[in-house]
Amino acid sequence: MALIPATILTGFLGSGKTTLLKRVLTEAHGQKIAVIENEFGDEDIDSDILVRDTEEQIIQLNNGCVCCTIREDLRSTLSDLAAKKRKGELDFERVVIETTGLADPGPVAQTFFMDDEIAESFLLDSILTLVDAKHGDGQLDTRQEARRQIGFADQIFISKTDRVDDATVDALIHRIKHMNPRAPQRKVHFGEVPISEVFDLRGFNLNAKLDIDPEFLSGDGHGHDHHDHDHDHEHGEHCDHPHHHHHDDDVKSFVFKSDRAFNPAKLEDFLGAIVQVYGPKMLRYKGVLNMKGSDRKVIFQGVHQLMGSDLGPKWAPGEKKSSKMVFIGLDLPKDVFLQGLEGCPV
């Protein structure tokens, strides 16, 4: 059976997750979606959409979607859904998991790596984070959970942009980009976003390419600092919100690039050691690697202490073989990582 794509929907309180979920659960989009709701949510999905039956945890909706609340743990809920699908008792094509507004999406994402049974049934398609343009800056200042949600994201939707001026939205986008340069950002009107932009993003499995704005990959490895400096220099004098450009967020990212092939054993040893020490602070890390002895790209990724790799497509004839990795985490010592990785090629 083909793997069932799963999407994790996260975002701080009031960012529009419920609006987005309601659309998924009620709109006639023709897709059969199973929605798993973390029932400690601050605002439950309205009861007029769901017929709550105490015995049965899984409810069929009139547009073909299925809804269930997590009673025990996510693993058993996913396992249950996959079993029912295999037996033909339930018909759905994908899963959406809503985390609570205060949640760290890490453990939810880890479920897809940790458990063989889950990994054989589901593919984590992407982590979507919603950010409220009006309150986002303040939440990022005061709540580490909000910063972590940005760090985990594959795609970021900024909602309620109509409630603030353009300069505020631009400053927020700029700030988020420094925290997580690999997640595309899109302005959406209060969670109203085309379903096609929510699903099949293949954000999590990288699709063998790493799209990061080139200015973040300037060759000197100091793309961030250099860019910050320019930005302040240009706008410092007459900027209405100069403080927007001086956030020193604990969630940051950096990139490693090399044209030399990695020695697989050395790389594995180094990454294993790094993950032992810094795993809890490593939110997301991924890369496309050129490994000695392999004619295929190796797609590598991880969440906290758990990492995995897959063989990607073959290197095309004439394609320059190079490795590129991005690390997003809490106060990670960039120099330790970069120096260590420099020692891993053949």
UniProtKB/TrEMBL annotation:
Keywords: Chaperone, Hydrolase, Nucleotide-binding. InterPro entries: CobW-likC_sf, CobW-like_C, CobW/HypB/UreG_nucleotide-bd, P-loop_NTPase, Zinc-reg_GTPase_activator. Residues 220-245 are annotated as: Disordered. The keyword Secreted does not apply. The keyword Membrane does not apply. SUPFAM superfamilies: Hypothetical protein YjiA, C-terminal domain (SSF90002), P-loop containing nucleoside triphosphate hydrolases (SSF52540). One of its GO terms (cellular component) is cytoplasm. This is GTP-binding protein.
